[in-house]
Amino acid sequence: MAKRDSKEGKRMVLEPMALLQGVILAQFLWLLTSIVLAIIVYFSSWQASHGLLALLARLAALGGGIVAGAKCSERAWLHGVFLGILVFLIFSLVGYGEPLFVAWPWWKAMLKMMLVAMIGGITGGLFST
């Protein structure tokens, strides 16, 4: 029978630094795209649609998931899921004008964000060193 390492059972499932780096990148991407969209809307008559804003938020979560997946040593998909939850909660607190956790569309949007961030985590895990 193989002897188990004593530290094996004590390891954390999630790596907080990988999540933090992913969340910071997602917030930076979200801020950058918001500034670019604000400049475009200011100088033109075009208005951004809700679908475009949701797509840009999901792309920011995808980028954060890729970074979190690349920075973690294992379970990149789980890092992506938790990153999706964190980023969606932050985005919701900043930009959602209705009560949280109440409406089905809010939960559906969070599940979509989790799925996109999980795909980013898996993709980042493939590129991890």
Report helical residue fraction: over 70%
User: What profile does the largest beta sheet have?
Assistant: none
What proportion strand?
under 5%
Helical segment tally?
4
Give me the secondary-structure category: mainly alpha
Count of DSSP E strands? 0
Quick one: overall form? globular
Radius of gyration over C-alpha positions, nearest whole angstrom: 17 Å
* Low-confidence spans: none
What is the residue-averaged pLDDT?
A: 86
Distance between the termini: 31 Å
H and E string: HHHH
3D structure, described in words:
- This protein has 129 residues and is mainly alpha-helical.
- Helices cover 72% and strands 0% of the residues.
- Helix 1 (16-43) runs antiparallel to helix 2, helix 2 runs parallel beside helix 4 (104-126) and helix 3 (76-95) crosses helix 4.
- It starts with 15 loop residues before the first helix and ends with a helix.
Distinctive features:
129 residues, mainly alpha, 72% helix, globular
List the helices and strands and how they pair.
Elements: H1 16-43, H2 50-71, H3 76-95, H4 104-126
Helix pairs in contact: 1-2, 1-3, 2-3, 2-4, 3-4
Please give a quick description of this structure.
By secondary structure, this protein is mainly alpha-helical.
